[in-house]
Amino acid sequence: MVKHSTLIIALLLASGQTLAEGQVDADGFTNPLQNLQFNPGLDQQEFERASSDALQVYDPLESWNRRVYHFNYRFDQWVFLPVVDGYRYVTPDLVQTGVHNFFNNLGEIPTLANSVLQLKGQRAMNSTARLLFNTILGVGGIWDPATKMGLPRSSEDFGQTLGYYGVPAGPYLMLPLLGPSNLRDTGGLVADYGLENAVNYLDVADASRSNPGITALRIVDTRANTGFRYGQLNSPFEYEKIRYFYHESRKLKIAD
Amino acid sequence: MPSIARLAALLGGLAFFASAMAADVDAQSYGYPLANPFEATIATTPPELRPELPADGDIRQSDYSVRLRPDREFELLDNFWPVTKLHYRLAQQNGRAPLIFIIAGTGAHYASGTTEYLKKLFYGAGFHVVQLSSPTSYDFMAAASRFATPGYSPDDADDLYRVMQAVRAQHPKLDVSEYLLTGYSLGALHAAFVSQLDETRRAFDFKRVLLLNPPVNLYTSITNLDKLVQTKVQGIDNSTNFYDLVLGKLTRYFNDKGYLDINDAMLYDFQQSKERLSDEQMAMLIGASFRFSSADIVFTSDLLNRRGLITPRDYRITESTSLTPFFQMALRCDFDCYIAEQLMPMWRARYDGGSLNQLIDKSSLYALEDYLRGSDKVSVMHNADDLILGQGDIGFLRRTFGDRLTLYPRGGHCGNLNYRVNADAMLEFFRG
């Protein structure tokens, strides 16, 4: 009897010790929460505070933006995605990749211009090299040999340039068909579009004017390569979440 | 001294006895690289150790929808138009094959990352696959749930069962040889209840059921998750909140690297850098993501039942109405608060009272103990370092499942599901 009780006490002591050292239970459970430091009162409001701050994105046009969000959602489901699916169905993978590379190559022009404007020498050189290799070796940009050569694609737009020089984001905007943006980035979009038209690289801008099919193809290609689907966040608060993600991801891109 | 030797012998014996029963995988031969359960939960498996999966383009799949609650189309407010019908995804093989249902975890969508991964894995093995949203998710609550107050597992399983039957009815030409069932996290608990329901309703007669990282005691899991946002996190002050802290770290990390590139491999690299997150910070991040799920549940359940706790009863909501104030209010309510304010009152009113303990008992694996003990077709895979478990839970699994429990030494919560070894074990179980 005495032996038994000492055994039990020893067992209890041992289990106490093992717990303190972060050891394993008899049934194999390692109890990962035991080593965390918690606030003693468990009444910390940090999650609530941080989340509440995250909802403070400047959005004076909210009710308009929300209508556009619902419009985009419907358009996506009823027009955009079916067209994208059709495009994927009829076009061989190789052609799809070629089309995507081609438009990406055109996109190097604004990246190059904005890298220069932000005085980012290395990125501008990277972009120039990509442009040359992909246009010449990649036959007008249909292939992307530059990435294989260790020149990763990065993108800079005029919205980022403005942000780099301290222009504030301005009110949040949900653009029809294009999705989340803000006043600064919408301005940037217009500027980049103007630039592409002015440069008229590979004659694409001119050709697009007489043949709207090229623009349409570019739009479909962009949608096909954008992973986002409305409803994907599966939350009644998807609007708020997209707004916050957009806001923060732009800040990350500007800082980079 | 002799007593210590005896103790050692006893503990050794216990360990031996236990390992003789369940299939315990030892850490060395297992080879899963992430020893930190929080890292494993967030980053899952390093890309090079994941199984080979079919490409999206090679999967014959489509999203469909079923109308289960026609009344909701009129009941739901304007901005809920996307969720009046329940959507799901079906990937079909050419010709005859087994069909597997996958039930998503807490708050998760049928197309969420883990469900998509499991789909690819099982599709690659030659199964038809149906992906279902969790009964705790926004779309399921709005479109398919009878009471829109998830948490009482028998009711949730009943809702799921109706969905599964509706899904099958929509594809009469699909050539199915047999039915299989799986779920991860909360979805695994649901799968267990669905399997039991199927024993009496017999619509599917599931051949095999696999539970991946299920909660054992629902309340323990909820308490753990609620507690994760209470960790002491360094670096927070009046001007810097928790998200700013994490984003600041990310910004500095990318600046050091020289370019911005967010991908699967980045997370491991980030955790090797000097900006790495501490355990407390990772715990807070995991806890925060679950709090967003609870906010969705709190808001949706309250609104659908017109309880008036978050949204005033007669408040008019259109597509242009700001929901931000309600979001802010719902964010204050964690799982515990949801149970106290919405689930308990509803359950007591519907089933004639009962205590919280009874509710927990009936909603947890305990309620199925006898069924699971005698049911050879149901197996469970779990991790020794899973955050949603409490003390004694693994003991319960060992007693109940015996050698049908596979216990992995690492992986955190669902972090090793996409590890090659686990993938092989899952396929072997279903092919078996």
From TrEMBL, chain A:
Gene Ontology cellular component terms for the protein in this record: membrane
Family matches, as Pfam families: MlaA
Keywords in alphabetical order, please: Lipoprotein, Signal
User: Signal peptide: which range, if any?
Assistant: 1-20
Is the keyword Cell cycle in the record? no
InterPro entries hit by this protein: MlaA
Q: A GO BP term, please?
A: intermembrane phospholipid transfer
Family to which the UniProt record says this protein belongs? Belongs to the MlaA family.
In Swiss-Prot or TrEMBL terms, this protein is called VacJ family lipoprotein
Q: Which organism is it from?
A: Pseudomonas chaetocerotis
